[in-house]
Design brief:
Methylamine Dehydrogenase, Chain H; 11 strands; about 100 residues; mainly beta
Length: about 100
């Protein structure tokens, strides 16, 4: 996922449960953030400076929120249902989570 406003790329590393932060101009990894095994999606809210990742579990998943200014996890929330993807509405900044059962906001 590209954050062109901040010149960064956020890449899922599903095998080890991390997100790599890559500086777009140099193509170098500048941070690695632990989000959890089973990562299924990633979305960037460029204006709010947040990256959201969805992690699926056997019955429940979680959403992790990363601050782009610090590359630190600022929130983690359990999610009822097996999250399969995540997106952000660019106008309302609402988080949209897809699950096996459907889409919820």
């Amino acid at each position: 996922m590209v954050d062109s406003l901040n010149g960064r790329v956020y890449a899922e590393n599903g095998a080890d449960g991390t997100t790599s932060v890559i500086q777009e101009s140099s193509a170098k990894v500048i941070a690695t953030i632990k989000v959890g095994l089973g990562m299924t999606g990633i979305a960037v809210d460029r204006l709010l400076g947040r990256v959201y990742t969805s992690v699926s579990g056997s019955e429940n998943g979680s959403i992790t929120v990363i601050d782009v200014a610090t590359d630190a996890v600022v929130a983690r929330s359990a999610y009822r249902g097996d999250a399969t993807d995540v997106d952000v509405d660019p106008v309302t900044h609402e988080l949209i989570v897809s699950t096996i059962a459907g889409v919820t906001e």
